[in-house]
Amino acid sequence: MPGNMLSKGEVFVIDTDAASREQLSTALQQSAYDVICFADGASLLSEAKARMPACVLMELPPDRSGLDMLRRLREENCMAPVLVTSANGSIAMAVDAIKSGAADFIEKPFRTHDIVGRIDAAIDEFAQPGTSRQRWLPGCEPLTEREGDVLEHLAAGLTNKEIARRMHLSARTVEGYRAGILKKAGARNVTDLLRRIFGQGASTQV
């Protein structure tokens, strides 16, 4: 981190590729973050017990063991936003990652400056008051803050990519939130979901 800049906090980076860790570390340090890199999840968990990072950037291995790591981080009361990266991303994996506590799902390869922007956005949102707000759909399980935001954008007719740009998320992450909304609402697709909402004359409530 440049010596004349105040630290924006620590970011934990877990990635099995040394070159990728170095690249991410350099970009984050240039953006005024302190960075601690890890080659495996066990060492990250140990460090997370002793200190609270501002954000965690975690590579998800092909065997999906990283999902267990996500859940364990939450069990250890590490409440910092966790961004997940993967070279083998799929919609199903993105949905599972979000259900396990990820704030964003980013497919590799990626541009490091995009990652920095995503981390900035995740930390800013985490710091906002009222992030525990929930929205309700008639007769359904309450939506999370982000699910509610995604639903509002869907109702406005935005595509996944447009929503991703508005919310500073990846399209896969938006797809994951959308799938969660549909499941909670018991809807087959977005058209079915919106038909139910507007057909009942109801809207999401904060």
From TrEMBL:
Protein name: Two-component system response regulator FixJ
Organism: Bradyrhizobium ottawaense
Lineage: Bacteria, Pseudomonadati, Pseudomonadota, Alphaproteobacteria, Hyphomicrobiales
Residue ranges of every copy of the HTH luxR-type domain listed in the record: 141-201
Residues annotated as domain Response regulatory: 10-123
Signal peptide: none
The keyword Transcription belongs to this UniProt entry's keyword annotation: yes
Keyword check for Hydrolase: no
SUPFAM superfamilies on file: C-terminal effector domain of the bipartite response regulators, CheY-like
PROSITE patterns linked: HTH_LUXR_2, RESPONSE_REGULATORY
Keyword vocabulary terms for this entry: DNA-binding, Transcription, Transcription regulation
InterPro entries, A to Z: CheY-like_superfamily (IPR011006), Sig_transdc_resp-reg_C-effctor (IPR016032), Sig_transdc_resp-reg_receiver (IPR001789), Tscrpt_reg_LuxR_C (IPR000792), WH-like_DNA-bd_sf (IPR036388)
